[in-house]
TrEMBL record:
PROSITE patterns: PROKAR_LIPOPROTEIN. It holds the Pfam family CA_like. InterPro entries: CA_dom_sf, Delta_CA. Keywords: Signal. The keyword Signal applies. Residues 1-21 form the signal peptide. This is Cadmium carbonic anhydrase.
Length: 289
């Protein structure tokens, strides 16, 4: 794949009950004003109006309404596709189900915003862990944090790897894409789910698959949307994605997330930022399931 094309694709990947962070980013204590987010949404509307953009993501999965009639064929079921990438965002990008607590406006660039697990955790589960977990310039992860994991699938014949670029190859530049989204809450509990296992993959029937996707977190909400990430706060994403978002949250051992960030085939070592929730009905598809 050509470098310039790969770079374009990589920019789209950012396609997630908090306690005080040891490395608290500035935006956590000094979020941008509501007006900043409102202006970003207004620019998104202006930059997409009557330009043929398809439905966008993320969205409130509890709301079925949408006016965007741009049609594209739904991608096959994920087990009929190849897993191409796994990455995660700090806080859920989507809203609804068990992740409906707004984290705040953040820095206006995708950090410190999104949605948190709306349930309760025990003091033991919230006990701080030693050391920094998946640190970056925007802070690290802590017990009690919410993440949205994106298991990305492609109809192209590929091998799982880094960025959305792994979902394409030289033989097909426009494969169908599907994202299976699962929201997790990080807990200090060695008996909670192991993130290494949750992101494990292998070949089944000739296709790469995530081998341990949760099956007990509710029926997925399926809808037509796009790639996500804060780069699209003010412009539309041109990439069409079939989404499946599970409405219930699973608890994962935070220590295993830290170990995964130290080395994985996807070259992921920190959480990505989130795109503003898309609320403009003209940029949303109708959920018909």
């Amino acid at each position: 794949m050509k470098v310039n094309y790969l770079f374009l694709l990589a920019t789209t990947t950012a396609i997630s009950c908090n306690v005080a962070a040891k490395n608290t980013p500035v935006n956590a204590t000094n979020p941008v004003a509501d007006q900043v987010v409102a202006e970003q949404r207004a620019k998104l509307a202006d930059n997409t109006k009557e330009k043929g953009f398809g439905p966008q993501s993320p969205r409130n999965i509890d709301t079925v309404q949408g006016n965007n009639s741009m049609l594209f064929s739904a991608a096959p079921a994920y087990n009929d596709m190849n897993l191409c990438n796994i990455h995660f965002h700090k806080n859920a990008e989507h809203m609804g189900g068990e992740f409906s607590q707004y984290a705040g406006n953040g820095d206006g660039k995708g950090h410190g915003s999104g949605y948190r697990y709306s349930g309760s955790l025990t003091q033991a589960e919230l006990t701080p862990v030693a050391g920094e977990i998946c640190p970056s310039k925007n802070g690290s992860l802590n017990a009690g944090d919410t993440i949205e994991v994106h298991y990305v699938y492609s109809t192209a014949q590929i091998t799982p790897g880094a960025t959305l670029g792994a979902c394409f190859n030289d033989a097909i530049k426009n494969p169908q894409l599907r994202v299976e989204a699962q929201v997790y809450v990080l807990v200090n509990d060695s008996t909670a789910l192991d993130f290494g296992k949750l992101t494990g993959f292998g070949e089944q029937d000739g296709r790469y698959q995530a081998l341990n996707l949760p099956t007990n977190t509710g029926q997925s909400i399926h809808y037509a949307g796009s790639t996500t990430g804060p780069a699209y706060n003010e412009k539309g994403s041109p990439f069409q994605v079939s989404w499946g978002v599970r409405p219930q949250v699973a608890k994962v051992n935070i220590a295993t997330v830290g170990e995964w960030c130290k080395g994985n085939v996807f070259e992921e070592d920190h959480a990505h930022g989130v795109r503003n929730l898309v609320t403009n009905p003209d940029l949303l598809s109708e959920i018909t399931q």
